[in-house]
Design a protein that fits this description.
Elements: E1 2-4, H1 29-35, H2 40-59, H3 66-69, E2 70-74, E3 99-105, E4 108-116, E5 122-127, H4 134-143
């Protein structure tokens, strides 16, 4: 699992409440394209969604910060649902997402799930459910 923030500024940091061994913070999505094995179409979608979110915050006269507003989480093939406990999601079966959407990106099905922790803080999860454990697949199927 990787925690990503794509930000227009150079000063974004995650609070200490997350475990450093599962965090990779980057300030530019281009670095993800160059340094990761993540699907480029998925990264394009993440970037598009994030830019839309930044625009919405700006239109409300607010500034986005991951510490106050939320994070983007991309689950990778070696991840399990258990790893989500590091961001406060445990057990997954008890979480009711705001929405779960399927994304068909060049023949691969990914999901995008929004989990609200409060009125101001959320986590957007991106994953290919077939590459994550059965618990995650079941949760996706129940919430689609």
């Amino acid at each position: 699992m990787k925690f990503y923030t794509y930000c227009e500024t150079e000063s974004t940091e995650f609070p200490n409440r997350y475990y450093n061994y599962v965090i990779i913070v980057t300030n530019k999505i281009e670095q993800l394209r160059q340094l990761s094995t993540l699907d480029k179409d998925l990264l394009n979608k993440v970037e598009e969604d994030f830019k839309w979110m930044l625009k919405e915050y700006k239109s409300l006269g607010c500034e986005y910060t991951p510490e106050e507003n939320g994070i983007i989480v991309i689950l990778e093939p070696e991840d399990t649902s258990e790893i989500l406990k590091h961001i406060g999601i445990s057990p997954l079966k008890d979480v009711i997402p705001e929405f779960v959407d399927e994304l068909d990106l060049r023949g691969t099905t990914y999901t995008q799930s929004l989990i609200l922790f409060s009125n101001e803080y959320s986590a957007m999860l991106y994953a290919n459910p077939s590459e994550i454990d059965n618990e995650f697949q079941n949760w996706i199927n129940e919430n689609l």
